[in-house]
Automatic annotation (TrEMBL):
Its main location: membrane. Gene3D superfamilies: CorA soluble domain-like, Magnesium transport protein CorA, transmembrane region. This is Magnesium transporter CorA family protein. It is found in: Cell membrane. Belongs to the CorA metal ion transporter (MIT) (TC 1.A.35) family. It comes from Dactylosporangium maewongense. The keyword Cell membrane applies. PANTHER family: CORA FAMILY METAL ION TRANSPORTER (EUROFUNG). Keywords: Cell membrane, Membrane, Transmembrane, Transmembrane helix, Transport. CDD domains: TmCorA-like. It holds the Pfam family CorA. The chain crosses the membrane at residues 265-283, 295-315.
Amino acid sequence: MARTRLYRNGDLVAEDFPLDDISEHLAAEDTVVWLDLVSPSPQVYERVQEEFGLHQLAIEDASSPRERPKLSHYHGHLFLSAYQATFEGDGGELTVCPVSAFITGRALITVHGDGFDMDAVVRRWDATSELARHGVAYLLHGLLDVVVDGHFDAVQALDDALEALEDTLFEETPQAVRQVQQRSFRLRRSLSHLRKVVLPMREVVNGLTRAKLVDEEIAPYYQDLYDHVLRVTEWTEGLRDFVATILESNLAVQGNRMNNIMKKVTSWAAIIAVPTAVTGYYGQNLPFPGYEHHAGFVTSAVLIVVLSVGLYVTFKRKDWL
């Protein structure tokens, strides 16, 4: 599957033309071509490599599903690798989809899988068509703008999920305790994954800002894009500290709960020990005040009640019960 677009002097003049017509279109002046490939086969890679003179290492990087976000410079073209990120708040899982781009002076070739939303990129291009006169820089900016906006949405969703988790941190129910433990570790794993996707984008966008294809007129748009990347990076680092705080708070809350349980168990054990001590004393085989008299039973019963109630009131005032 392949999608194509042809721009001439900043105007969209053709769409979805065959791959074989690209050479003819590029032969004309003031034309820019976009070619989009979805999970291309090795044969398609070979045709594109011959058509645009792409480096073999760039082709191998585009074929790799786990390439880190980066910007590589080759003779005659650049290679860009990035990831679109989506966070599902219900499951607490982060989904990423790789997208690669070969960047030449008059062509942008994008490569991705079925999970990448290229329609959003096309809508972004159509919404900013006044920048189309900048050629490949315009197309590349729209692509990266959609990717970075996706990073923003993912970080926002992670932030909301962490705040919701923080609200359940002090609930006493066993279900809430298990939820905090399980969900905090899932969110921490998703945040770590997102951090690996977001942080290298600073180098990518910064490198493109200094590239020759970015002229003075469109440079402010790339600078704005770089500012967005920095904001996402700072936000991600802040959430990393937030997750660590939640985990530490969860351990502290569990420690406090254990201390409260131990105080209650110890207090009840002390209360139960009083009747045991009194009845043990009165059960001895030696004469004592009230021995073999009804007054001895009354005295022991009164001691049990008074001492037990006294201990209960004392522990209650100290918040041990």
